[in-house]
Each structure stands twice: as structure tokens, then as C-alpha cells.
Specification:
This protein is 48% helix and 13% strand. Helix 9 links the parallel strand 6 (187-189) and strand 7. It contains twelve helices and eight strands. It is α/β, with parallel strands linked by helices. The longest helix is centred in the middle third of the chain and has 21 residues, at 140-160.
């Protein structure tokens, strides 16, 4: 139960250490987690992340637990739209492509790469255009470069027939323009933060929508709209995630998030949709199977 389609294992291991990471994998196995997707954010982080994961797996005493953890753990590789990445986007996407090509041919240990991302547009942290916020060094070229970095990764995913993990924050129109320009509509709008109309636009194009812990602390005045959105997403397009170590759900808000806390989000979503947690877990697991081509070990 409790698949997690978006967490940052590398960040958690950096913070807590390899033995803690091994313990997390063992706990996920004990919870019968079917699918756990570790997400990339930098052009060169994929080999570092698989090395760390392999080291954690090697610390597991039980051969059976190691086997189940390997079967559960998969990876994406992508470039989050940080300023340095945008400025050097062509070189960085070339480097990313090299590591992805290598990863697709290497299923040893935990090196099972199943998606491109996370990548996309962030107009919360990045300026949404050439305006007063450009005093921080942003200009029109950098603003347009953010969209180009995203589209380069969409094109890479399209060429490899891989799903994309899309980061879209306060950037719905730009995100839609980019995915329509490339014409690749396979993947996840992660940590979904828009409304019903925006969801309809993504769903009509074939995208999956992933809900995270943030839905559990929706403001009261917005709760009715959020619940309507949660009920609106079709069974075959719904995924759940943590974005750990960020966005811990209620009642753990403010803590470091981990995939173990996703049970609270499952319980919250299941209640709104009027299904059991077990049925919701089955729905999410089935969607993981249909969206991702998971290599056999």
C-alpha cells in the first residue's frame, strides 16, 4: 500500500545518513509499498542518487527485504528550473540526456530509470515575466530560457517515449503552452495546485494529476473547491505523492516529510472520494503500472 510517485530520497539521505535511508526502505517494504519514485532535480545527480540508493540497499540484512526494496524503488532524472540551469540549459540537457541513456541500459542494483523530471516552470520563485522583480538579475532572455529548458526536456522524453514529471507553480498558461508546443502529453502534473478548469485542460490532454500533503491543509474557505477537485479527477488519472522532505501532511505539518507519512494523505483523499484506503491504494498502484514501464530486475 501507499505508493509514492514523488519524493527526494537523496535529500533525505543527505540529511539523515545511509543507515536511516536503509531503515526507510525497510519500513516501506514492511508497509507493502508497491512503487516509490525518487525524483531528480539536477543534470548530473542521477549517478549520485543510484549510488546512494545502492549503498542503502546493501545495508539491509534480509535478502528478501533487499529484493522487495529494489523492486519498489525507481528513479526519474531531470532539471528543475534553477537560474544556473536555465543559463546553461543546452549543456545541461545534453549532460542529462547522456545519463538518461546510460540509465535506461543499466538495471543493476537500483538503477531503474522510468521518467524524465522534475522539470517545468516555477513563477513563484522565478519571475513570472519581465517586471519589477527583474532587479534580482532576471531578464527577458532568462524568462524565455526557463520555458526552453522545459521544452528541451519534454522533447527528450518524447524521443525516448518516457513520461515526464512536471513542476508547475503559478505558471499554468506557460506550462500548457510548452507541452502543447512539444506535443508530448504523457506524465504527471506533480503537487497539483490549480483549480478545476486547469485540471480539465491537463486531463483532456492525457496527463495524470498527483496530489500531495498540501491538500490536507487547504484553507477552510477553499475546502469545498478542493474537495470537488479531488472528486473530479478520474480514477485512472489519480496519483498520490509526498514531495518529501517537503510538504508534510496534517497532522505532521512542519516536520521533515518522508514517504512513510503519505498514509495521512491517502486517508484524507479516500474519505473525500468515498472509498476505502485499500481501494485508493489499488487505484494508485494500477495507475503506476499503466503510466510507467517498470523494468524487471
Amino acid at each position: 500500500m501507499y505508493s509514492d510517485t514523488h519524493f527526494h530520497f537523496h535529500y533525505l539521505v543527505e540529511k539523515f545518513g545511509l543507515p536511516w535511508g536503509a531503515g526507510l526502505l525497510a519500513d516501506l517494504v514492511a508497509n507493502d509499498c508497491f512503487f516509490a519514485l525518487d525524483i531528480g532535480t539536477k543534470s548530473d545527480d542521477f549517478p549520485v542518487r543510484i549510488k546512494e540508493a545502492a549503498a542503502c540497499l546493501d545495508l539491509l540484512d534480509s535478502k528478501d527485504v533487499r529484493s522487495k526494496a529494489r523492486s519498489m524503488l525507481c528513479f526519474s532524472a531531470g532539471i528543475w528550473p534553477a537560474e544556473e540551469a536555465i543559463r546553461h540549459r543546452h549543456e545541461q540537457v545534453k549532460e542529462l540526456s547522456m545519463y538518461i541513456q546510460e540509465g535506461l541500459g543499466n538495471h543493476a542494483h537500483a538503477a531503474r530509470l522510468v521518467a524524465v523530471g522534475e522539470c517545468g516552470l516555477d513563477h513563484h520563485w522565478n519571475p513570472s515575466g519581465v517586471d519589477a522583480r527583474s532587479s534580482n538579475g532576471w531578464d527577458e532572455a532568462l524568462y524565455k530560457g526557463e520555458a526552453e529548458l522545459f521544452m528541451l526536456q519534454l522533447e527528450l522524453a518524447k524521443s525516448l517515449s518516457l513520461p515526464v514529471i512536471v513542476h508547475s507553480r503559478e505558471a499554468f498558461d506557460g506550462t500548457l503552452a510548452c507541452i502543447d508546443e512539444v506535443g508530448w502529453h504523457k506524465g504527471i502534473i506533480h503537487c497539483y495546485s490549480y483549480g478545476m478548469d486547469e485540471a480539465r485542460a491537463f486531463l483532456d490532454r492525457g496527463w495524470h494529476i498527483a496530489l500531495g500533503g498540501a491538500v490536507t491543509y487547504t484553507k477552510k474557505r477553499l475546502m469545498e473547491q478542493m474537495e470537488a477537485l479531488v472528486r473530479y479527477i478520474p480514477d485512472d488519472r489519480l496519483l498520490l505523492e509526498t514531495d518529501a522532505p517537503y510538504l508534510a501532511p496534517v497532522p505532521c505539518r512542519g516536520q521533515v516529510n518522508t514517504p512513510l507519512l503519505i498514509s495521512h494523505t491517502y486517508e484524507f483523499i479516500a474519505k473525500i472520494r468515498g472509498v476505502s484506503v485499500e481501494e485508493l491504494s489499488r487505484i494508485v498502484d494500477d495507475n503506476c503500472k499503466s503510466l510507467f514501464t517498470i523494468p524487471a530486475l
